[in-house]
Amino acid sequence: MAEHESSNQTLEMEKPKPPLRCIVKLGGAAITCKNKLETINEENLSLVCQQLREAMATNSASKVFGMDWSRRAGDPMVVDFDEDPAMDLDTNFIVVHGAGSFGHFQASRSGVHKGGLQRPLVKAGFVATRISVTSLNLEIVRALAREGVPSVGLSPFASGWTTSRRNIASADVSHIDKALHAGFVPVLHGDAVLDNLQECTILSGDVIIGHLAQLLLPEYVVFLTDVLGVYDRPPIDPNAVLLKEIAVDEDGNWSIVKPTVGHLKKEVEITVAAHDTTGGMETKIAEAAGIAKLGIDVYITKAGTIHSLRALKGEVGNVPDDWLGTVIRSSKQVHPLR
Amino acid sequence: MAEHESSNQTLEMEKPKPPLRCIVKLGGAAITCKNKLETINEENLSLVCQQLREAMATNSASKVFGMDWSRRAGDPMVVDFDEDPAMDLDTNFIVVHGAGSFGHFQASRSGVHKGGLQRPLVKAGFVATRISVTSLNLEIVRALAREGVPSVGLSPFASGWTTSRRNIASADVSHIDKALHAGFVPVLHGDAVLDNLQECTILSGDVIIGHLAQLLLPEYVVFLTDVLGVYDRPPIDPNAVLLKEIAVDEDGNWSIVKPTVGHLKKEVEITVAAHDTTGGMETKIAEAAGIAKLGIDVYITKAGTIHSLRALKGEVGNVPDDWLGTVIRSSKQVHPLR
């Protein structure tokens, strides 16, 4: 995991009360149409939001109280105030989303991740990238709000987060913590940010998750993506085997616990998608390993499936046979008899 | 002006280099259609953005390099990279906008300004208000970016700003300052925020302006609204007289310098629009007076006119006869012979 230099202010927030239940990463590939510029995968996003609500629900019989009271693309606004609303939710979640088909074009075309704000093209790319990713953030906040999840957008740049040569330099989480305590679900995202050494860069959602996990120590972290989990070779290969449990030791080295190695290709290949300016599955696994080292279970699974619902509820710690996904955890936490 | 308790961190930023040139308030009434729910006054907004660019231009012959590279309402994206872009702008401006027909419905219907997040309706209203005002913020950032102004949205809630019984309690401006130094134009807005005493409230754009002016000491502040300035009675009254210059003394009392009092109604009436949850012209004048007391000229005029362009350029300090608007300034700054 990236080296994080944290301020004293952020370290004070390490143990919030009540403890944070879950940090969820909504992968860009899961909630957008990766190959269609700035297009949301509405069906998947809606499913993910419904499942998040279900995972938070303390009373599944409660009626959804929609919180997006804004017009949508020309529609008139309809807000039903007739009933006395209830909000039976354990909202102790943080959502972080990737960019998918938002922001990447703007960032890679201008080279924002390489820095150099003196160049007009980079400065314009910074502005254009932020416009694209914040418009996605707004749509995700709205989709959650429509499902009755009290979501609030927290843009890392607006929160004053900065980097030093692409690693987080300062990232005050005190207002994330305040928002959580007030009963809101903070929704963060990969963003263009200022960098102390190269003036600007792209801070990826995966790096944000690693940082938040370190400071806020959630019970578990869920990565929702467009494949079932981590495979021993590219998942389009028909012989690809889903790795169901990976153990990470103190040095960050990882080994496959389940299935047993006999079934597997010796060297696990990790593919990095070419369009992804902030790294693909490799970054994801590196960040997941960094989180697992802290003793926090990481579940990687496919968004909008029965498997993602179980993961969001935190019910897959024992890696059930009928659950499809990957659990990454500290080797100290792996049950010796399983 | 509201009593501001500032943190040490914010006070360190009092004298940025180079000095801030201007803080501009885009009044909600000027950039939205006040009586049409969540509808932007596209023509006015576009004019305001063009004038802001013109006020910033150091070389008026430079071609506009558009920075909004996102799709708009179904349109395909067209980004022209053929030319080597130039950016001959003095970007040392901050923009703060009101909500107009965005956010007010959501806030007033749920009573967010009165606090009480334990009530589901208030919590939902908080979420709904932020969705509405941040969607307006995104559209204003995009409109500025299309005119080649390197604008970045900075939502007060996301920046961790909080209030104590509606007055600003903490509002760290260090990242606004960093954004300015990096050559960006921060765009802030009236927002729903957490309140130390009543859990939540609405922080108005006018209060934000007062706070920023106090900490960042701009050369001048411009309020762009839907009337030419401050009148001695409601401006729809045919006998209403435009007050061209108002002096504010150290105690915040104000007197009319121009025109001379003989022409005026004795008691100046100030109207407060009923739909405005954060106060109308009265709050505006109180905030303007608070800023003027600091020795900073405040220009109030109508958006999208020749008068607003002159105000944005800072060319109306001597209150020209052919300029229509109101200058509010410290009585110490008023020229004794004029």
Automatic annotation (TrEMBL), chains A, B:
Biological process annotations from GO = terpenoid biosynthetic process
Q: What is its EC number?
A: 2.7.4.26
Q: Where is this site: Transition state stabilizer?
A: 34
Q: Which cellular component terms (GO) are annotated to the entry?
A: cytosol
Q: Which parts of the sequence bind substrate? A: 99, 104
**UniProt catalytic activity:** isopentenyl phosphate + ATP = isopentenyl diphosphate + ADP
* Matching SUPFAM superfamilies: Carbamate kinase-like
> Which EC class is the enzyme in?
transferase
Gene3D superfamilies in the record: Acetylglutamate kinase-like (3.40.1160.10)
| Residues at which ATP binds | 100, 205, 226, 280, 284
- Tell me which InterPro entries the record gives: AceGlu_kinase-like_sf, Asp/Glu/Uridylate_kinase, Fosfomycin_R_FomA-type
Recorded hits in Pfam families, A to Z, give: AA_kinase (PF00696)
Residue ranges of every copy of the Aspartate/glutamate/uridylate kinase domain listed in the record: 90-301
**Keywords, A to Z?**
ATP-binding, Isoprene biosynthesis, Kinase, Nucleotide-binding, Transferase
Q: One GO MF term, please?
A: kinase activity
UniProt similarity note = Belongs to the isopentenyl phosphate kinase family.
Q: What PANTHER family does the record tag this protein with?
A: GLUTAMATE 5-KINASE (PTHR43654), ISOPENTENYL PHOSPHATE KINASE (PTHR43654:SF1)
Q: What is this protein called?
A: Isopentenyl phosphate kinase
Q: Which organism is it from?
A: Dioscorea zingiberensis
What does the organism's lineage look like at the top?
Eukaryota, Viridiplantae, Streptophyta, Embryophyta, Tracheophyta
